[in-house]
Design brief:
By secondary structure, this protein is mainly α. It contains ten helices and no strands. The two termini are 17 Å apart.
């Protein structure tokens, strides 16, 4: 029953959203070059389905690669900040300043640094835009670890690495997965920034740019919906991992 509810409720919410969108377009009388309706998107998917499959996969795997890189780097930075107050004070301003820089301005710089390395450029920007919440969540989780646990483990001869794996990591998992859900959407933003700002004919961003060039507005909206769908898929993959590794937190909260 619980599983059915978790599937049925989001599905009904999506259907309601699409129905309201369709109704709004028809009530306003907007042409599809101003606001395409869901019914306008069906012909676009039927016509370009092969391109959606190919370019959707290109966007998806590069987003996942950037996200995995963000998980590794963000966790390491978070560990450094969480275990050392000095490093936390030193790195926080730098991370905040870097995260405040619009990534659209970073894309041309990355493209110039790695000319022709389109996959690398896309993965790097996806990484740069998504590692910040992971770093902060891990740092906060570790910095709020009860000192009594550390003292007991240190008295027993445990190293910092052992303290992290045995106590700190399980404690930070709920915050980590919460940040990872945010990082998923940010990674897709980074991927599409490169595909649109620094076009190289790959990914859904390139398909969107093609629709814009040819004034094919239903195609542009179809790309946006496809991006949203991929984001949902990756989000629920994270939810599944959360159930596996941190399901105890939800059970205890309930």
């Amino acid at each position: 029953m619980e599983t059915a509810r978790k599937i049925l409720v989001p599905t009904l919410a999506m259907a309601l959203f699409l129905a309201l969108w369709e109704l709004l377009v028809h009530v306003k009388g907007w042409p599809n070059y101003k606001m395409a309706s869901p019914s306008d998107l069906v012909p676009a998917y039927a016509k370009y389905w092969k391109l959606f499959l190919v370019m959707g996969w290109q966007t998806f795997w590069r987003t996942v690669a950037g996200l995995l890189l963000a998980v590794v780097a963000g966790t390491l930075i978070g560990m450094i900040m969480g275990f050392s107050r000095t490093m936390r004070d030193a790195l926080y301003p730098l991370l905040v300043a870097f995260n405040a820089i619009p990534k659209a301005t970073v894309v041309p710089i990355v493209a110039l640094l790695f000319i022709g390395q389109h996959d690398l450029n896309t993965i790097l920007v996806a990484f740069m835009i998504s590692f910040f919440p992971i770093s902060v969540s891990v740092a906060i989780g570790l910095s709020t670890l009860e000192p009594e646990y550390r003292d007991i483990l240190r008295s027993l001869g445990a190293s910092q690495a052992q303290i992290f794996w045995k106590i700190a990591l399980p404690k930070t998992l709920p915050e980590f997965f919460g940040a990872l859900k945010v990082a998923v959407t940010l990674a897709f933003i980074g991927t599409n920034l490169v595909e649109i700002v620094s076009p190289h004919g790959r990914g859904l961003g390139a398909l969107f740019d093609n629709g814009k060039t040819n004034a094919d507005y239903p195609l542009m909206f179809a790309v946006l919906i496809a991006l949203g769908f991929l984001g949902i898929v990756l989000y629920y993959l994270v939810v599944i991992l959360e159930k596996i590794f941190a399901g105890w937190a939800e059970r205890s909260a309930g």
